[in-house]
Design brief:
This protein folds into two domains: about 120 residues, Rossmann fold; about 100 residues, Winged helix-like DNA-binding domain superfamily/Winged helix DNA-binding domain (Arc Repressor Mutant, subunit A, Orthogonal Bundle), CATH 1.10.10.10. The chain has eight helices and twelve strands. It has a five-stranded parallel β-sheet with strand order 2-1-3-4-5, with helices on both faces. It has a four-stranded antiparallel β-sheet with strand order 6-7-8-9, covered by helices on one side. It starts with a strand and ends in a 10-residue tail after the last strand. Bound molecules: calcium ion. Calcium ion (CA) binds next to loops. Calcium ion binds next to loops.
């Protein structure tokens, strides 16, 4: 999966400078020019990293940091014209990981992005789980965020990926709708209901199941939840 970055910046020239650079470096990105859009994108796009301007037309960037921190630990790099220590401290205390003052060097921003990704990898490697999950023809490389079905890579949206990871980390167990919603749903702007969960599950199945009407991997327990079936090495279900 391509590394994804959300660029929150209302100044069009700076936004274009950043996104053009990200593009040449092979990063995936989304942009937002208001605080409202930033939060919506943070929820729906689930970026690996957020690059955040503080002076936005509708909201102070610090407020965005606080909101995002209620559900995500991913790095937030502030790029702001505010150069006073008290502004930096406020942003860092709210949960920002790094702070660059405008005018900034684009090379320095790229270096900070690389540091942030390195730090994320360290954080992930600290976990005790196996880096590769294999279940029948389904394979997930957690460190690369990639999913394969029968040796072919499938491209999932961040939400589908989180849903699948939750199931694989609990393989064999039935997860109730509420448990799944608590674990992967964030508390703002997304309808937290079983209907939208069904929609995400349907699109996920379309991508990983050969025949979504007769799922091999994800079993539905009507009125209860879902279970990822553990498949023995022979390819037969347990
Ligand atoms: Ca601004």
């Amino acid at each position: 999966m391509k590394k994804s970055i959300l660029v929150v910046e209302d100044d069009k020239a700076i936004r274009n400078l950043i996104t053009t650079t990200l593009e040449t470096q092979g990063y995936g990105f989304h942009v937002a020019d208001t605080g409202q859009k930033a939060i919506l994108e943070a929820v729906s796009y689930q970026p690996d990293i957020i690059i955040l301007d503080l002076g936005l037309p509708d909201m102070d960037g610090v407020e965005i940091i606080t909101k995002v921190r209620s559900w995500s630990n991913n790095p937030i790099i502030v790029v702001s014209a505010r150069s006073e220590d008290k502004d930096k401290i406020k942003a860092l205390d709210a949960g920002a990981d790094d702070y660059l003052t405008k005018p900034f060097s684009i090379d320095e921003l790229l270096a900070r992005i690389r540091v942030a990704f390195r730090k994320m990898n360290y954080d992930n490697s600290g976990a005790k789980e196996e880096p590769i999950f294999v279940n029948g023809g389904l394979k997930i490389d957690y460190s690369a965020n990639t999913v394969y079905v029968d040796e072919e890579e499938v491209h999932l949206t961040p939400m589908e990926y989180r849903l699948l990871c939750l199931l694989t980390k609990n393989v064999g167990k039935v997860l109730t709708h509420n448990y799944i919603l608590d674990k992967i749903w964030v508390n703002v702007l997304v309808d937290r209901d079983t209907q939208s969960l069904r929609v995400f599950m349907a699109t996920l199945r379309k991508k990983i199941e050969k025949d979504p009407s007769e799922p091999k991997y994800i079993q539905t327990h009507i009125g209860v939840g879902y279970r990822l079936i553990r498949i023995a090495d022979s390819g037969e279900n347990e």
